[in-house]
Amino acid sequence: MEKMLIEGGHELSGQVRISGAKNSAVALLPASILADSQVTIEGLPNISDVETLSDLLEEIGGTVEWNDRTITVNPEKMVDMPLPNGKVKKLRASYYFMGAMLGKFKKAVIGLPGGCYLGPRPIDQHIKGFEALGAEVTNEQGAIYLRAKELRGARIYLDVVSVGATINIMLAAVRAKGKTIIENAAKEPEIIDVATLLTNMGAKIKGVGTDVIRIEGVESLHGCRHTIIPDRIEAGTYAIAAAAMGKEVVLDNVITRHIESLLAKLREMGVRLEEKDDQLLIAPRGPLKSVDIKTLVYPGFPTDLQQPFTSLLTKADSTGVITDTIYSARLKHIDELRRMNAMIKVEGGSIIVSGPVKLQGAKVKASDLRAGAALIVAGLMAEGVTEITGLEHIDRGYENIIEKLTNLGANVWREEMTPNEIKQFQNS
Ligand SMILES: CC(=O)N[C@H]1[C@@H](OP(=O)(O)OP(=O)(O)OC[C@H]2O[C@@H](n3ccc(=O)[nH]c3=O)[C@H](O)[C@@H]2O)O[C@H](CO)[C@@H](O)[C@@H]1O
Ligand SMILES: C=C(OP(=O)(O)O)C(=O)O
To answer: Any idea which positions bind phosphoenolpyruvate (predicted)?
Structure first.
């Protein structure tokens, strides 16, 4: 087991290439189940969520070939094998095996997913969608059982705007008989990416990127080749790190439109930004002004950047208020940032960050992926050395983070934990 060490205070400069989007990758891979021949996806990020999903595709009989960041999945020999336990529990997106296997085999058994604990993360809207399409759904001993004689298109109104439910229903509906309409659908770029792959496979989907998606089911789907979109949350994390510690940092392979809500806030804080093609220059000038943010569904400010943004606000000139309307309990970074000298209060559902504060290096624990990102940003800013444990969360979503930060001038490395540290970590 390893920990990450960061010696803070080093200025960041240079260029960092943004990897393929985790939240696309984790849906594109299960989507490949629906094809009847090879699906090749280019630009996948080398992260543990992708590895886990690739293992799960093999568990159900697929073959998966890697060639650098290109993956070719051959689904021809896949079977409707139950996956009630094991690797499905390691990540959130294993729930996409429900929609994809239901679409292909008309049945599936999938253990309830893991992933970051951000407070309760129900999947009632996924299930409502599957039932509307004609599936019988039961929850037996922590696994979801789905069976359908046939899937029939339906009109489905989502009670909450959900990325996962929108994609999952889309995965099943592309193989249903007739027309499905998803109303109050989510509009995240990853949903468009998945719909693009499905369309290349022969699916008939209209309206993605709006809140009404119309799908005409088809008899079969074929293989295709697809290039993934860049990761807007990874891009946002580096943009935040650059705003905190950057001289001039250039993000390469970024779709700036996908992070417009973050860029607007960085501009308000006084950070100079320049966009050119698929590159973004981030150059902070002078003290940062405090701002308030409210996380919302896309195109609003993403909840996945709330935690690293909290760290940035500790450096700003006065008080900033953060309201996470998607996951109000996404607060596991706060106590750890307080250990680093941050002045943060949580009141009435809001995170109130008082700045400016000089953060101090400390021993801290990443309890979820973006809490990890928050601690890395804080570690870069802090005086002295910060030791971060819980790296398995960070490895779910950030490709080569040590190399990328080192190339930008940070002093960051990984070390094996001692047996004593492992014991302390496990008891904490
Ligand atoms: C793998 C993946 O893509 N993960 C992302 C996805 O998670 P995920 O797809 O799980 O998140 P959702 O968009 O579904 O959740 C949005 C909100 O809806 C609620 N909800 C969701 C489904 C449901 O059936 N019932 C329900 O009440 C959730 O509790 C949450 O408050 O979107 C989140 C919100 O942008 C991001 O933080 C995650 O990084
Ligand atoms: C919450 C996240 O991921 P997941 O939904 O996979 O747990 C995230 O990417 O910030």
So the answer is: 22-23
Q: Which residue has a Cα nearest atom 37 of ligand 1?
A: 304
Given a cut of 90, is residue 18 above it in pLDDT?
A: yes
User: Residues near ligand 1 with C-beta < 6 Å?
Assistant: 23, 26, 92-93, 121-126, 160, 162-165, 186, 303-304, 326-327
- Determine whether the shortest distance from the Cβ of 115 to ligand 2 is under 6 A: yes
The catalytic residues are: 116
Distance 395 CA to ligand 1 centre (A): 20
Average pLDDT, the chain: 97
My answer on whether 212 and 297 are in the same domain is no
Q: CA angle 262-266-269, nearest 5°?
A: 145
Same domain flag for 39 and 179: yes
Annotated binding site for UDP-N-acetyl-alpha-D-glucosamine: 92, 121-125, 304, 326
CA distance 343 to 357: 7
Kindly state whether residues 38 and 165 are assigned to the same domain.
yes
Tens digit of each residue's pLDDT (9 = 90 or more) over 324-382: 999 999 999 999 999 999 999 999 889 999 999 999 999 999 999 999 999 999 999 99
Band of residue 117 on the pLDDT scale cut at 50, 70, 90 = confident
Same domain, 118 and 201: yes
pLDDT band, very low/low/confident/very high, at 120 (cuts 50, 70, 90): confident
Pocket test for ligand 2, best of 19, 22, 233 (most atoms within 8 A of CB): 22
Query: Looking at this predicted complex, what is its ipTM?
Result: 0.99
Residue 234 Cβ contacting ligand 2 at under 6 Å:
no
| CA neighbor of 149 nearest in space, from 137, 138, 134, 139 | 134
Reply yes or no on whether the pLDDT at 295 is more than 90: yes
Same domain as 346, residue 399? yes
Residue at 55 is within a domain: yes
Whether the pLDDT of residue 118 is over 90: the answer is no
Buried b (16+ CB within 10 A) or exposed e, 119-135: eebebebbbbbbebbbb
Which ligand approaches the C-alpha of residue 374 most closely? 2
The strand pair at 12-17 and 246-252 is best described as parallel
Domain that holds residue 342: 2-12+288-427
> What residue numbers does the annotated binding site cover?
22-23, 92, 121-125, 304, 326
**Stated pTM of the model:** 0.98
Instruction: Please count the structural domains in the chain.
Output: 2
Task: Tell me what percent of the residues of the chain surpass a pLDDT of 90.
Answer: 95
Angle at 254 between CA 330 and CA 47, to 5 degrees: 55
Distance in Å, CA 281 to ligand 2 centroid: 26
- Which residue has the least CA distance to atom 39 on ligand 1? 304
Q: Which two tokens stand for residue 253?
A: 């392979």
- Determine contact, residues 187/298, Cβ cutoff 8 Å: yes
